[in-house]
Write a structure and sequence with these properties.
CATH class of one domain: Mainly Alpha
Distance between the termini: 35 Å
Strand order of the largest sheet: 1-2-4-3
Strand content: 5-15%
Number of helices: 20
Shape: globular
């Protein structure tokens, strides 16, 4: 469905062309002075230089052709050459009716759908999810949903960290504690036990203990490095331990991602890239891309046009061990072979920007990824506490993700029970939905690249630019629909309602709500193209705000004019449908009451 802005621009462009001007000057934008008009065209100002003519004269030329067009309720030329427009309310009502007739509310799918892989999540196994994993999961999940809604094939990959030094540290610590375990006997040739030699809680304690010990004992860290190399080279006992670690860790990771309403199509790991590494390295050597630097195998990725230092990309360490750089490159190779994606997007902490700049250059230079495949690094900022420093527990540690979710949910539950009485089971269920909305909206409403303050009190507020406010607005609409059914004995359905039964005056709040709803498909296009869930958040906040202004100024259910009431019901049903699409794209849902 053509965007409303494009429909208006088409009218202006044709007029510019008919008067002998380039059509590019007919582009229309939202007015930056909504107190004066709804839309504006500033093309006459830009055209004046090319055509050596006063801009107001150009504007009046165009106005002569469009002043009687029924799309406008008013259109005027204002000094020094602005064209200000207000739309005919019946025209907007007709546009909304077309939106309502489409299950996607007027948002077209891509004409040339792409295959896109989104790399988000990225936790290391053997460690619980903590708040440092929150942003990648929330942003990545939203991008995946947005891409799919726009008609693309989008594949989410958790990309687990299971092949680095942390594995060697766990193996070394386990050997220190239980040296008698059969996994450490290099002469053992039998089958290894099916039962792991540790529980999840024990495993989660082992890694931080090993990491802390290695910082004070260089020989221990060297032993862990050696264990990592032996694991990567296929030592049987270490591979068996690795399998135990995976089998214990992954179910817990899935459980916690489920709590965030985050899912992945691929549960790939760094280690999945290992089979590709030997041939990849041999091929790069054979084609002359590599050189040895201080014992390590590297590829130069610096370009003559660079104004900053871009270090060489390290393929192998001096001891032959692989690094993140090796597995990231081999993972790209695997993704190209398995999925042939048109684009790969990495949702990662912005502090890793240099690593991915090197990685992307290396992938393009060596032909692992063709020039036609778009590689995007979406670096996100830090989630900080009210003190402006990275969010911590009261004890100064890193908070577990499940603890954060529970704290928010409990706070919402307390708020619900303060305001009304309801069964505890229902209140808990509502608190879980509202709490998740508070977390996700609180994060996604910020531009991804920026740091933000994680303020629980603000995020769970039922007023202002928050997730609970959006949900409360939706619940309010559902309540009106329920009252309408009680009053008429029938469900309100868009297919049975009219947006323009009779010509009538429409109030300012109704017009504002109609115009905001009409922006949906335009907003979605920008949110997708710019990888910007925050644009959806801004839109739904403005839509919810416009609805609440309309609600407070009009007695919807008690309206005596049946035609007007029907148009209003159609409008709020469409608003609800748009809000439901949007919050699903943000990764949460609304309860029926709050």
């Amino acid at each position: 469905m053509e965007k409303l802005m494009d429909q208006i621009s088409d009218v202006l462009k044709k007029a510019f062309v008919e008067k002998g001007y380039d059509e590019k000057y007919g582009e229309v934008a939202l007015s930056n002075r909504p107190d004066l008009c709804q839309y504006q065209c500033n093309g006459a100002l830009a055209a004046a230089k090319q055509y050596k003519k006063a801009p107001i004269m150009i504007a009046n030329d165009v106005l002569e052709l469009v002043k009687d067009n029924p799309i406008f309720s008013s259109i005027t030329a204002i000094m020094p050459g602005f064209i200000n427009m207000n739309l005919n309310p019946d025209y907007i009502a007709g546009y909304l009716a077309d939106m309502a007739a489409d299950e996607r509310c007027g948002c077209d799918k891509a004409k040339n759908p792409k295959t896109i892989i989104i790399d988000y999540g990225g936790p290391n196994v053997a460690k619980p999810l903590h708040i440092g994993h929150l942003r990648s999961a929330i942003i990545g999940e939203s991008l995946k949903r947005i891409g799919r809604f726009m008609g693309h094939t989008v594949i989410g990959d958790v990309h687990l960290g299971d092949w680095g030094l942390q594995m060697g540290l766990i193996i070394t610590e386990l050997k220190k504690r239980q040296p008698e375990l059969v996994y450490f006997d290099e002469n053992y040739t039998g089958e290894y036990p099916d039962t792991p030699p540790f529980t999840l809680s024990e495993l989660e304690e082992i890694y931080p203990a090993a990491s802390a010990y290695s910082k004070e004992h260089p020989e221990y860290k060297e032993e862990a490095r050696n264990a990592t190399v032996q694991l990567q080279q296929g030592r049987r006992g270490y591979r068996a331990l690795w399998n135990h670690i995976m089998n214990v860790s992954i179910p817990d990771l899935k459980k916690n991602y489920d709590k965030l309403n985050v899912s992945f199509e691929l549960w790939k790991k760094e280690s999945d890239a290992q089979p590709y590494i030997p041939d990849m390295v041999a091929d790069m050597k054979a084609r002359g891309y590599t050189r040895v630097s201080e014992g390590a195998l590297v590829i130069d990725v610096k370009e003559d046009t660079d104004t900053k230092e871009i270090p060489p990309y390290i393929l192998l360490k001096s001891d032959g061990a692989t690094l993140y750089s090796t597995t990231d490159l081999a993972t790209m190779l695997e993704r190209m072979k398995l999925f042939h994606p048109d684009a790969i997007t990495y949702v990662v902490d912005k502090r890793q920007e240099m690593h991915f700049e090197q990685c992307f250059r290396c992938a393009k230079k060596t032909g692992i990824v063709p020039d036609s495949t778009k590689l995007t690094f979406l670096g996100f900022g830090t989630m900080n506490g009210k003190d402006g420093k990275p969010f911590k527990t009261r004890e100064g540690g890193v908070m577990r993700l499940e603890t954060l979710i529970q704290n928010i949910t409990d706070a919402v539950y307390d708020k619900i029970m303060q305001n009304r009485e309801m069964p505890e089971e229902e209140a808990r269920a509502i608190a879980a939905k509202v709490g998740l909305a508070a977390i996700k909206y609180g994060d996604l409403s910020n531009q991804a690249s920026k740091d933000y303050i994680f303020d629980i009190d603000r995020f769970i507020a039922f007023e202002g630019n928050t997730g609970p406010y959006i949900l409360y607005t939706m619940v309010r609409i559902k309540s009106i629909l329920a009252k309408y059914k009680d009053q008429t004995g029938a469900d309100a359905k868009l297919s049975n309602l009219s947006f323009r039964k009779t010509a009538r005056e429409r109030g300012a709040s109704e017009m504002a709500l109609m115009l905001q709803a009409a922006k949906f498909n335009d907003m979605m296009e920008h949110a997708y193209e710019e990888n910007a869930p925050h644009k959806i958040c801004q839109f739904v906040y403005e839509l919810a705000d416009a609805f609440n202004s309309f609600y407070h100024e009009n007695k919807i259910i008690s309206e005596e004019d049946a035609d007007k009431k029907e148009e209003w019901m159609a409008l709020i049903l469409l608003v609800l449908a748009i809000l439901e699409i949007c919050i699903d794209l943000l990764g949460f849902e609304a309860p029926d009451r709050m």
